[in-house]
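Quick note —
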Amino acid sequence: MKKVAINEIAVEEARLAHPLAKAVAAKGVIVPVVLGVKRNANGLYPILDGRRRVLASIKAGLPNVPAVFLDGGAEITLMLHATRRNNPVSELKAVRSLMKQGMSEPQIASAGYMAVQRIRKLAKLNRLEPEIAARVEKGEVSPTVAFEIAAYLPKETQRKLAGEEKITAPLVKEYRSAGKGQDALVGLNVIQQHQPATMDEMLAQLSVETLQAISSELPAESRFTIWQAKLGQAIQVLTLEMPVRMKA
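Predicted structure written out below.
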């Protein structure tokens, strides 16, 4: 373990939980962060684990943090998140990190820490509003409730739900009922009401690999231009965007 200057660490902007910042300011960083051995294109060390601790240190005005270095391979990235099995947003971030490195679903699964089915289930959380996803990651919303929100509540309803002090299963059911989002339910509820889902909603349920396979099979003709654009957009959403602005 060694002290590493914060200006040598790759950090993305994010909202920071004030309680953690205050704790770090008072006692410093107790648990070392985990950094990748290889610096990125900007000459900075990538964070494999402990991003919130680094952000809290920045907020507290600390010049450096205790850190350990690991080879940031797929096994390490997934292993660090395996202990957070009850935190699906954290798992999703690990998967996204690997996909940004060019790994496919089967390649990630072959690392031995996560099945393809689990990866595809986590992808459904892309439907979560950033505020909701942040609370899931903090442990304020249970995984079961998180998946229910992603499957049934549209964005507008999720934004209203985010304003609630506590988000529980009974509360989500209330929002699914008449008067609180019933007009735009997605997923299985849409099917149950015999309302056709939009093409964007259907594409959002598919995995990156499936979308890429469909795209590769489309003829290179002008009449398929719109389809290619929609597929490209869906792939970009699943592989590049995170549902949380803090992205930690």
